[in-house]
Amino acid sequence: MIAVGILYFVTRRGGDEAAGPDGPPFAVGEPGPGSQAPAIELASTAGTTYTLAVDGAGKTVLLYFQEGIGCQPCWTQMTDIEDRFADFEAFGIDQMVTITVDNIDDLRRKVDDEGISSLVLADPEVSLGDTYTANQYGMMGTSTYGHTFIVVGPDGTIRWRADYGGSPNYTMYVEPDALLAHLSEGLASAS
To answer: How many structural domains compose the chain?
Structure first.
């Protein structure tokens, strides 16, 4: 746990100092912008099954694939996004949904501990690994997700994607200003 904390500090400071105002580099995995978002149907911390085609219909959804309970910077990322959610709403984002490979009971406890209000989905089988490829960008190989953000529009089309991390530039946290700048640039180029 101490190593995770040190890595968080180094990663967060490195993102501020080394990357400058533009933030850390990112890849754009597949499926990318313009593609139909693959189906998602997973248990949520709200006690329901979240289905993207139903629960996300008519909304612009920010999907956040992350490493899970052992990645405290990933949870800090969520709380920082929630604190700045009005800035994301300015880009038309209606909802953030986070996906990890942890089981639902552990996720409920973590969400309560962190005071998270966004939905968190449990995917312990990494069932979306083949369709979203977000498990190609983490520090733990393909057994968990990395640090991927995907915006799905009201029609189910992917409008923007950023896969932070992956070898050798592992990233576990992106400053909200950098994330918003990348989001703004990506959505503008998609228009």
So the answer is: 1
Domain that holds residue 44: 2-190
Which CATH number do you get for residue 12?
3.40.30.10
Length of the chain: 191
pTM over 0.85: yes
Span between the terminal Cα atoms of the chain, in Å: 43
Residue 167 burial by Cβ neighbours in a 10 Å radius (0-12, 13-18, 19+)? exposed
Calculate the CA 77 to chain-centre distance: 9
Report pLDDT digits (tens) over 120-149: 999 999 999 999 999 988 777 788 999 999
Nearest to 35 by CA among 163, 144, 132: 132
Q: With 70 as the cut, is the pLDDT of residue 153 above it?
A: yes
